[in-house]
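**Backbone geometry record:**
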Amino acid sequence: MPSIAKEKSLNRSITIWGAFAIGSGTMVSGAIFVLPGAAYQVAGPAMVYSYILGGVVALLIALNSGEMAAQYPRAGGVYIFIHEVMGERWGLVSGWTMWFGLMAACAFYLVSFARFLDPFLKFSHHLAQTGTALLLLAVIAAVNIIGVKKADLFQQLMVAPMLALLVGFALAGFLAGSVPVSREQAVLSGNLGDILAVTGIIFVSYLGFMQLCSLGEEVKEPDRNIPRAMVWSVAVVTLLYLLILFALMRILPPRELAGTAPLQAYAFRLAGAAGNISMLAACIVATITSANVNFLSASRISFAMSRNGFMQGWAAAVHPVYSTPHRALVISTVVISAAIILGLFSPQSLITLSKIASALYLFNYTLICLCVVRSRKIQQTNPAFKVPFYPVLPLLGAVSCLLLLIYIVYTVIRSITG
């Protein structure tokens, strides 16, 4: 059995609003700015059903994860839940897949950030983009090492104006136009296969709220605040996504709606060049907040795995002044930097990457739902927050995640084999 490193607790400084900002801010990532175009290409206006289905599955995951977070409010989140309930082997698989998945996502957002800046800075060489991505990573790492409270404040300051901008533009679209009758009819006659295919593409847009679980030792009253923040994040962001989709369908013609940057095209039609720049700025902010939280969560998983002896024990050290896992943060920084320098993550492979990320997360989410059943049945636990309608919702969550996972894997294999 791996040796257990001597534990030192992290500092609890994240409030309910900070937790909500982390959950919602990571959900509203760069994905919502580009994936509606890809979704429209596949399912047309029926993509609305895909976002609703994604929201329902995410809500089931949030409820089940909330019970686990209330029971195990420790750094590491998903890894800790599965390790404690399913055992070391399943925990090891979960920990490594989640850690690499989070770092991959962080690297992708950092590279995307540099590319989104191109209209402003006019990068003349690939090295300039790489340097910009590494510079942002250094800033994020420094903020997180100094203290999670600083990272929490940073997240809230970035998320609030971004959400306000998106809501404002979406509401303006409702006042400016109406959905064509043909699109209303298309929504009602969507193809189930296309809807499921799009759900696999866009489900990455719903992954952010789970990063809260990795911060179990740093949220105040975690047994109460983490479940609430996750459910609020899923509900609010799902409604925001639907609002944005209907606004896009009211304003944009099919060609622009199916483009690579539908929200920017939408903002340009509403407010001209100023609207385009504002939406691009929001997109840049979204990539920063997503990179920040994925980086934060990745370091907590490596920190937890080091505690349990699955990584070098020295990585479980807590900074004597800042009370942050500074060595785990440095490890994540090095790995992400290497990925960026090697150019392993390219926005050109966005659809495939989003499917792979969704599949990796859905694997772990299936296990979490099963953990709730196993925990109650075998361990006889009594957490402060419990999933309602047990065992229906845990089993429904596990089946939903598993079926979606199978379908995503099938579409990825089919796209590779032709």
